[in-house]
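Handout, section B. The chain below has 407 residues.
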Amino acid sequence: MSAPTAAAPGAPVVELDLAELRRDPYPAYAELRRTAPLAWVPSVRRHLLTRYEDIVHAEKLPEVFSSREEGSLLLRTVGPNMLREDDPEHRRLRSAAEPPTRPRQVRDLWADAFERTAHELLDRIADRGEADLIADFAEPLVAANLALVLGLRAASAADVSDWSRAMMAANGNYADDPGIWLRAEQATRAIEEAVAEAADAVRDEPDGSVISSMVHAADPVSLTEIQNNVKVIIGGGVNEPRDVFGVGAWALLQRPEELEKVVKDPASWKRVFEETARWISPIGMYPRQLTQDYEIAGVTLPAGSRVALVIASGNRDESVFERADEFDPDRPHRPHLAFGGGPHFCMGAWVARHEVSAIAWPLVFSRLKGLRLAEDARASDNGSAADRLDGWVFRGLTSLNVTWHAP
């Protein structure tokens, strides 16, 4: 299946500046939804699909909108993996990896350790009265939790964070920066070594982790398959919960009345999580490639066409979400797209939901008294020069500088 390298006949061609998309993609997405819901974008070398209903429709047709994209950046970064497979191969790999991330397992196997790690990280900063909650808390928390769930016994939280950053940069490296590819290669080699060591350890002593689950899967999984899929999980497993934590905390700190309501009703942290993931989607888009000619959004795409499902745009679709650009945890429930859909719904969604909404946010806002944004962090919904939102393939805060009343 060869991929066309130009617009499909009849598809609008829209020039988008990647630097501007990184700064703030939402105005461009709004214009695309209004005027060209399927458009060829030369800087990305693919068609962008931007309306909610079209994205949902595509996700329901994996036999047409295939995850096996030729020349995928993710394939180049980590090798063959479940995210770039269709069923039945996708189902075989996911069935082997998924059991430790299901809701009951998260609650019974991992939740206590997640909470201990959160307290330990807060203990380190509580007396300081100031911190960057991304670098000092959220990222080390989710990285340590991920190492535990994966079964990477010898990897530190810093290792996992560094690996994730290197691979996520490569997976969004549409500019083909050679330095980004080099860092990703170094990270993936280190992960392969760590996974091989962990896989050896659990062959005789299963520990309930993802690696253990894959080693002992009923339908055999090779070491290379385990290594490649652990690489994929490390990417999203740090990126998504870290960025939802940061954006949600930042949004509430700019809305004191909303924060007061949530603190008084701890059950509402779950709504904050879902609204944050909708409002600023931590993963903004992912690729698909057509297996046959197919018409969508008024354009017939030929077989082989590359399409980006821009879920960040779908999550701001005004026809689905009233006042879509506003952060409103009390909005009427409509399913968002932040964790994807169909067979590829994010395997780590329940881990992320629990560690952020049940543990990280409640502990931070209860333990750090008088928590507020540092002066240079008070800004509009695009962030200040210091604490800015960045990215379009993946989007989150670069930092979250805060102060509080130190004991």
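Note. The radius of gyration is 21 Å. Compare this with the example in section A.
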